[in-house]
Amino acid sequence: MANFENFANKLLELEGGYVNHPKDKGGPTKFGVILSVWREHGHDKDGDGDIDAEDIKRLTESDARYIAKRLFWDYFRADEIINESIAQLVVDWGYHSGRTTVARIVQRILGVTVDGIVGSETLKALNTLDQEKLFSSLKIERKVFLNNIIRRKPDQIVFYDGWMNRLNKFQFRKAA
Question: What is the per-residue pLDDT across 34-48, written as a single tens digit (0 to 9) for each?
Answer without folding.
Answer: 999 999 999 999 999
